[in-house]
Amino acid sequence: MSTPLTRDAGIEVPLICGAMYPCSNPELVAAVSDAGGIGIVQPISLTYVYRHDFREGLRLIRRLTTRPFGMNALIERSSRRYHEKMVRWIEIALEEGVRFFVTSLGNPGWVCQRVHAAGGVVYHDVTERKWALKGRGAGVDGLIGVNSRAGGHPGPLSAEALLADVGDLGLPVVCAGGIGDPPGFAAALRMGYAGVQMGTRFIATEECGASPAYKQAILDADEADIVLSERITGVPVAVIDTPEIRRMGLEAGRLARWMLRGRRTKHWIRTWYGLKSVWQLKRASLDRSGRNEYWQAGKSVAAITSIEPAGEIVRRFRAAIG
Ligand SMILES: Cc1cc2nc3c(=O)[nH]c(=O)nc-3n(C[C@H](O)[C@H](O)[C@H](O)COP(=O)(O)O)c2cc1C
């Protein structure tokens, strides 16, 4: 099936395995790409969780598949050091042949300039029209519409409402959020989306490096078990409702709320949250004892009933669209 996404990314199935901190490991990215979709590298997951040198990690994926894979650039300017690191990661990715980039947060203008000069494309995560307009102004080639059922940071709108909100901007729109089975995939394409980005479904795979306890929690969870916590990054993150999440509480503390409202203090508190959560999420996703019940997932858990090879998922989804 040919869509603007398959043409832009050079792939056969309009299906993206979205970047996931801390769940994106090279084997997962490669398996999705090798089956005809496209896996997206999450740089901090690759280097900090899975301990690969960034370039070597990309080369490992390249040894596992000759097909295209992408890279996620979270471009919020939380610190100068992080920004410099991201600039370097993008350079390395381009040198290693990556030509498909997914930007999240921030202004993607500088990424577009650099990637377009190398002949690549940039798709930008958006949750509503104002961000889509900003992305279009910055020169992005496509949008990833992150809806209210997504894992990670969900948006405020349903898949239908989001497409109505951003579908007239002359850019392809990919549906991210809530899709866990082939009928959901086919329905999103019928709705007018150029493709689908899934995260949660790909955690419950043989290749994903997350712990068996985390994968089992995804199989066991239902839609009503997904709650939004502000305690992880300062803005709502979708997590599985567990005793540990309950103990932490779902809302940011009073000081944090106050800081999140200020222009300068917002950056400090986000950096603090970022450092803390990066460590906690890593520990929980790798902990084989299952004692750290601190697991991100979206509402697509309802449709996920087994741990499968990632390539098998891509093939099943492909069969559903003929
Ligand atoms: C555990 C987890 C971690 C995620 N981390 C990131 C990330 O680091 N960067 C990003 O752009 N999106 C991130 N996302 C969002 C996914 O790339 C994707 O858009 C989302 O999972 C789609 O919703 P679904 O989980 O319902 O399939 C994450 C999602 C999950 C479930």
Give a brief rundown of this model.
This protein is of the alpha/beta class and 322 residues long. It contains 15 helices and ten strands. 45% of the residues lie in helices and 14% in strands.
Beta content comes to: 5-15%
Shape: globular
Radius of gyration: 18 Å
Total count of strands: 10
Indicate the multimeric state. single chain
Structural class: alpha/beta
Series of H and E elements = HEHEHHEHEHEHEHEHEHHEEHHHH
Instruction: State the helix count.
Output: 15
Largest sheet: 8 strands, parallel, barrel
**Poorly predicted sequence stretches spanning 5 or more consecutive residues:** none
What's the pLDDT, averaged over the residues?
Answer: 94
What portion of residues is helical? Answer: 40-55%
Hetero groups: flavin mononucleotide
Task: Report how far apart the termini are.
Answer: 8 Å
Spatial strand sequence of the major β-sheet: 1-2-3-4-5-6-7-8
Description of the structure:
The chain is of the alpha/beta class. It contains 15 helices and ten strands. It has an eight-stranded parallel beta barrel with strand order 1-2-3-4-5-6-7-8, surrounded by seven helices. It has a two-stranded antiparallel sheet with strand order 9-10. The mean pLDDT is 94. It binds flavin mononucleotide (FMN). Residues 18-21, 23, 42, 72, 74, 104, 125, 146, 149-152, 176-179, 197-201, 296-298, 300 line the site of flavin mononucleotide (FMN).
